[in-house]
Amino acid sequence: MFRKLHANSLVGLAGLFVFLSVGIFDVTADDWPQWGGPQRDLVWRETGIVDQLPDSDTLPRVWSTPISEGYGGPSVADGRVYVMDRLRKEQRERVLCLDAATGKVIWRHDYEARYSISYPAGPRCTPVIDNDRVYIVGAVGHMFCPQRRRWSSRLAA
Fold first, then answer.
1. Which of 101, 82, 73 is nearest to 144 (CA)?
2. Among 51, 66, 83, 142, which is most exposed with the fewest C-beta within 10 angstroms?
3. Is the pTM of the predicted complex or chain greater than 0.85?
4. Is 34 helix (H, G, I), strand (E, B) or coil?
5. How many CA atoms within 13 Å lie on the side-chain side of 8?
């Protein structure tokens, strides 16, 4: 299941990269609040954003921010980008909330995550956004709703 999800996540991540790279956050944009988009089908239904892609080999970079290792894709909602990564040396996973217009970190939630799993390069989760709540699942079973601190759990690994 994770192999199929990983391949599909790459497709969604590539689509989201194009979405972020063309600088569309200056206009009203559709949210992408979970893996696969609003309907989990990898279809971007928004129109009128880009008439034509540039002829160059690369798209213009709007912003960048340093993140570490991970397999999951980003989520976008209400002008914010959410992404998970792993700080290998510190043995911690984290979710970052970034300003979609600037890439600046708004908040972060990190927690200890000692890996004893294959492919130890980071979490596989795309954060799920539900109104003002963010739900994440780490690679070794940690579940959080970080900004509300409503709950956390550790699934059996």
1. 82
2. 51
3. no
4. coil
5. 15
Among 36-50, 57-71, 88-102, 122-136, the range with the most confident prediction by mean pLDDT is 88-102
Q: What is the pLDDT of residues 95-153, one digit of tens each?
A: 999 999 999 999 999 999 999 988 888 999 899 999 888 999 999 989 888 766 655 66
Domain 2-40+61-154's class?
A: mainly beta
> Where do the domains of the chain lie?
2-40+61-154
SS3 135: strand
Residue 21 has pLDDT above 90, yes or no: no
Task: Kindly report the number of other CB atoms within 10 A of residue 96's CB atom.
Answer: 22
H helix or E strand, kind and range, residue 132? none
Report the SS3 class of residue 154.
strand
Instruction: Give the whole-angstrom CA distance, residue 46 versus residue 61.
Output: 21
Rounded-to-integer distance, Cα 25 and Cα 7, Å = 27
Residues 97 and 108: their CA atoms lie apart, in Å, by 6
Report strand pairing: 75-77 vs 80-87: antiparallel
Residues listed for the chain = 157
pLDDT value of residue 156: 61
